[in-house]
Amino acid sequence: xxxxxxxxxxxxxxxxxxxxxxxxxxxxxxxxxxxxxxxxxxxxxxxxxxxxxxxxxxxxxxxxxxxxxxxxxxxxxxxxxxxxxxxxxxxxxxxxxxxxxxxxxxxxxxxxxxxxxxxxxxxxxxxxxxxxxxxxxxxxxxxxxxxxxxxxxxxxxxxxxxxxxxxxxxxxxxxxxxxxxxxxxxxxxxxxxxxxxxxxxxxxxxxxxxxxxxxxxxxxxxxxxxxxxxxxxxxxxxxxxxxxxxxxxxxxxxxxxxxxxxxxxxxxxxxxxxxxxxxxxxxxxxxxxxxxxxxxxxxxxxxxxxxxxxxxxxxxxxxxxxxxxxxxxxxxxxxxxxxxxxxxxxxxxxxxxxxxxxxxxxxxxxxxxxxxxxxxxxxxxxxxxxxxxxxxxxxxxxxxxxxxxxxxxxxxxxxxxxxxxxxxxxxxxxxxxxxxxxxxxxxxxxxxxxxxxxxxxxxxxxxxxxxxxxxxxxxxxxxxxxxxxxxxxxxxxxxxxxxxxxxxxxxxxxxxxxxxxxxxxxxxxxxx
Length: 528
Known about the structure:
This protein is an alpha/beta fold. The chain has helices at 15-26, 62-67, 103-114, 128-141, 175-185, 202-218, 264-272, 292-300, 371-374, 381-397, 406-411, 440-453, 506-523; strands at residues 2-10, 32-45, 48-59, 74-76, 90-92, 97-99, 120-122, 222-224, 229-235, 238-244, 249-251, 255-257, 277-279, 282-291, 316-318, 324-331, 335-338, 348-351, 360-369, 401-405, 425-426, 429-431, 466-471, 478-480, 493-495, 524-526.
């Protein structure tokens, strides 16, 4: 197979122009086939903007074709195809159990299902269809279901986000491609296979997850919703079963622990059982809104700002005090959403639908924190720090999302109204003074970061940029230790995904779930 990188074509090009360009570069006629593997926008030299493609080409006499080419962008490649490992030899006497139906749990269960292991998936929340209703009701009324919300339920926390599928992980095994292909198999648009920054959108992702679940049930997998694990049966440092909230016990010798980053009750239970874990660094800050039109004009220029998809951005900086300040989970054409999962605590996130048609862009602008900042000791210190911030945030807004204009934040005064644009939110809002939520050192870093980012995105520090407090759950505050077989110090207990501290988004969590399932498959052979 031949790969061509960096094929540039004008924005207005026709579909056939790409094939003509490939033929010209390879000195061929029409006796080849091609597949787009990456597509992105190059807007570095506005107003000249290009689509940039990478393609794989299949052609007869590949070596002969390449012998006439002297171009660094053209090279032979061997396409990586993901392979499910063969089963091991040790008898598995009981069905494996997957705790959590987020991306890590779903993809771990999916691989186990495809290999004939028929796992049981336990999810303390509801199906994605029922969960959608609960979330919409919460946004309208403020009445929270602590086990069915933006954080908890089928699909995990990423379901009510932008459905972003990009990852920085170098994929040498084909897992990333397998995850994307699986999403397409169950209803996602094929463009996620090649878009440089693929996303599904909350509306489409909900359907994809439901389709995936129904497929697994048909193949022998069992889902149990509204089913909370309250304790673990552990003897001689080995897992023997799970105790559910109704007092029943599921006996099993292998548990995939695919918790989300908000599974605080379970973290405390694991700590009680001396499961080895440690506090880890993460980041906190505010959701920041700008008009999407402003972002488009800056990123694309005046000629194309209304002719291209809503533009994302990514900004980052570091300061002498050691604080990193950066954008996280950027949502073009999106909404700021109340993402609370605990009574009297409030946290926000960002969300986009598949069309990204909202009037505002938002992202979390966050400041790094580490165990020295937490004010608590032990592996759960970061979790208690998050809770403290969320309690302060809840009180500040009296249960509503507290908001402030950036200029008023600098001047340490409560905002009275919006500026030239209004906020786009899911959940009730109120104006407040957000100063004092973070430490003085962090506030200085946040302000300096916002000012610095205006050198990259002009107007980023505009007075009426809207801040919403607070984004505290950017990643898990803990890491559950595991060995090379992906087991914790409790044999048979396999921590994985974002909650266990091994992932940072939908795709990386899904890939980590695959890794754990692979280890179980390689080791065991089901005999039940």
